[in-house]
Amino acid sequence: MTGSDDKRLCRLLYAYELDLLDAEQRDEFEIHLLDCPRCRREAEEFLPTARLLKHDREIRGFVEGVESGGTPPSGRRRYLTALVAVAAVVTLLVLGPWQFELGPTQEAIASENRMAVLYLPGSDDAEANLEMGRTIVNLLATDLSESEYLQVVSAEHLSDVARRLGYGYPARINRGQAARLAREVNARWMLTAGFVSDGAERQLITQLTEVAGGELRASHREVADSSATVFTLVDRMSAQLRGDVSLPRPALHEKDPSIADITTHSVKAYQFYLKGVELTHRLYFDDALEYFRKAVKLDSTFAMAYYQLSVYSSPGYITQAVKYIDRATKKDQLFIRAQNALLNGKRDEGLAFLSTIVTKYPDDKTAFFQMGYQHYLARDFMKAIYYLEQARRLDPYYKRPPNLLAYSYAEMGRLDDALNSLDEYSRVAPNEANPWDSRGDILARYGRLDEAIDAYREAIKIKPDFRPPGYKLFLSLLHNGQYEEAEAWISSWEPYCHPDTCSDVHSTRFQTLVYRGRYREAFGYVDKTIAAEHVQLETWCDYDGVAWSHGLKASLLLELDSSATSEVEKAIRFHTERQPDDRVNYRVSLARCYIHAGNLGRAEEILTRLGDDLTRTNQTQRLYWLGMGYLEMARGNAAQAADHFKRSADVGLGRSGFVPRFLQGRALLEAGRADRAVEILERQAHSFTQTRMAEVELSPKVYYYLGIAYEETERKEEAIEQFETFLGIWKDADRDLPEYIDARARLNRLKSTS
Amino acid sequence: MNPLKVSELYKQLLDGDESARDQLFTQLYVSFRVLARHRLADWDEAEEAVQAAMVKVSGKLDQLAKEGSFAAWAHRILHNAIVDRQRVIQNRRRRESGLDVAEVYLRGDEECRELRSRLKNCLKEINAEFGRHARVLVLKYQGYRTAEICKKMSITPNNLYVTLSRARALLKACLERERKGK
Fold first, then answer.
1. Considering only CA atoms, which of A682, A686, A684 is closest in space to residue A709?
2. Residues A397-433: tens digit of each pLDDT
3. pTM > 0.80
4. In B, which residues are within 8 Å of A36 by CB distance?
5. Does residue A401 have a cis bond before it (omega within 30 degrees)?
6. What is the four-CA torsion angle of A355, A359, A362, A365, rounded to 10 degrees?
């Protein structure tokens, strides 16, 4: 080798260290390096630096910041920047009630550059290629969305609109259908993408077309061998495309992070995540959770999968989402921050983050929906309806707003509007089970059980494995007095479960018996449920299931005024296995055990600690006031107890208010306020919310106590009717139950004097 | 004294100087390690590749045709060992979390933290007078290949290498200055 050759090769050192040489050059250089002590020494000394430059995320971020014209902000500064943005939005919010003013700059430019990214599969693509193609196109859309100067139509919106047009997207559409779709979503640009893989080589091919004139603006082909990840393909393609769509100069200085860095480095995890998201849009949350769990199993740093788990499974997952927040897109980071604030009781801060999203991404219906949902949770139904309508306006095909609108109207007592919203929901989700499930809920809430049963049956017909309507159908049949149908429905589950572990069947039979006052028989089934849950524990580690079954037995024992301490302690022990930090669940039951044992001081201690724990974890004091109500009842302060139960009911949503309302009615009766008890209990007797129906030991007793309230207010006919209803349900009840004995005595007395 | 080139040591060995054998293996080991560590982010894996290559070189050295390039032959052996390790890493990553092993290592390493801090200062410093360096790095991060980077920056590959060579010299000098400053 000549001296000039050596010199030339030595000059390649840094390019080699940065992996910028092609394979041939690299081999040449490495052979040179073996024989060039000077280059070798240089390379050896520089190894740690080269490694940082190539692999260190922090350095990479720093370089990107330096390159875009300044020192990148530190984590703290970035947070402060976000807060400033939030403050700006809050100011906007103050300007007018719930009005948004969109900034004239990026957002306006972005809306001018609205783009639909569509997947066009080849006619003979194999299923594996189709799935990968869809994944890549989704990644590409996500990557392009990172630009504040581009407004990329969400894949979900495209999918919804395509379905309405009768296209099979994202399965297979042709170019003409793609163009129609792009026009339908008001896109200026249509980006079609195809993906080809033959095992050795992968190709991503795109064509960018201006929708209005149909003019082809650019076409690209990115090729990589099988060792390159799809993320690399997407990054390369996205960088080329940004240059094609006439973005303003500042857009050139926007950061363009690797798509893997802001989603996940695992393709399979991303595919699981997408599937989960799709299922949440169809409101199949249980199914979706499975996919989010699979995603985090494959990539334990997948921030958005944790975020979804925090929304649909357990709030605790938000900690992980926050931990890996840098691995999410800019918009997703705002969602994570919003969720984190909301879960930590910082509602205003959470709403401010959501406001930032709707300002920066005015196309984002999810943020509008979330705002509506937060107002719904806060029982501010007017505002909830406002935001949900905005979300619906943005995307008439978006399924979640009409669903929640229906519940909001139902809470406000506007049944017609609720049913209209459900009609709308059924129109946008014609073949889905959830509109029927929601219809069942709302009709049951208004006491229309026959229609609710039909609705639940319809939901099950569409999606037989959708569990909620199945259980609600059982409860509705039970409360409608259709015991044989309820039993037949339970029996229909039996072929699908192992006799040793069929806890669902045992527990529903238990509930049937409890509802009908056959407590002795019911104990047999609760023991079977507990045994089955213990068997299942070994297979699925379902500690919550075991805890729940012990809790079930405890509630029955307490209702019978028996000692339930052992069962409650077991429930707490198993629940703690699953959630070691939880100091809230089953604490009211524990306090009730001490009340039953006459140890009111200990019960109060437990409740005081519960109150503190609820405050510490930013939860409402619903359970604390419930427990305090029981305590005051035991002390003989019925009026005070009624007040506590009311407070408990007032902080929960309608669907969680049955137990405290029922107890409030009972306490008012004891306090000599029968007139007020009538008001409370009448409302509960005519409404079949899911919570009421699931409280099988209390649910039939509403009629009994309402009967007493009527009797004490001299409304004999109505009292008779209520006692007859109660005794009708308890026709085959254990004869020694005090309510049964008392109801019969009262009924006989009323009948003999009327 | 500067170490001899491996090809010269091999020549001495061929000429019957058995004392060159140990020196050759030492030099080869050091060079292999540098190459493997550049190619494999996980340095434990790099060590595995080096060991595998050294075993092969040792076993086959005497069968090597005398007229061939020793460096090219040794390089091919190391290259194959590295490719084997890359396959292992890829399979493992597929099974596990997909997290870059080097990244995990870099996070917890005290020396890296110190170097990272110096490197940031230097990157900032050289960017003030030599902005192209950061531009190349960013494009590389984005997955562009050399030809594409040159096209985007409207420079020839030779220009790019010269630019990088100069940037490296500045960076190295700055890092040394920073180290002494500490």
1. A682
2. 788 899 999 999 998 889 999 999 999 999 888 888 9
3. no
4. 5
5. no
6. -10
Q: What is the CA radius of gyration of chain A?
A: 31
- C-beta of residue A167 within 8 angstroms of C-beta of residue A184: no
The alpha-carbon radius of gyration of chain B (Å, integer) is 20
User: Does residue A426 contact residue A446 with C-beta atoms inside 8 Å?
Assistant: no
CB A591 within 8 A of CB A607: yes
Tokens at residue A302, please? 């997948």
Distance between A312 CA and the closest CA of chain B, angstroms: 23
DSSP for B81-111 reads HHHHHHHHHHHHHHHS----HHHHHHHH-HH
CB B135, CB A67: distance < 8 Å: yes
Residue B161: closest C-alpha in chain A: A12
Among residues A206, A154, A202, A151, the alpha carbon closest in space to that of A175 is found at A206
H/E element, A204:
strand A201-210
Task: Quickly tell me which residue has 């170019």 as its tokens.
Answer: A175
Contact B6 A35 (CB under 8 A): yes
The type of residue at A388 is L
Cα separation, B1 vs A744, whole angstroms:
111
Q: What angle do CA A585, A587, A592 make, to 5 degrees?
A: 140
pLDDT in tens, A251-297: 777 777 889 999 999 999 999 999 999 888 777 888 899 999 999 99
Q: Which residue has the tokens 């109500």?
A: A629
**Interface with A, mutate which of B142, B144, B145, B154 (most A CBs under 10 A):** B142
Count of Cβ atoms closer than 10 Å to residue B90 Cβ:
11
* Residue in A closest to B97 by C-alpha: A299
Residue range A110-137, pLDDT digits in tens: 556 789 999 887 756 666 677 888 899 8
Residue with tokens 């434990």: B44
Q: How far apart are CA A289 and CA A230, in angstroms?
A: 25
Mean pLDDT of all residues belonging to chain A: 83
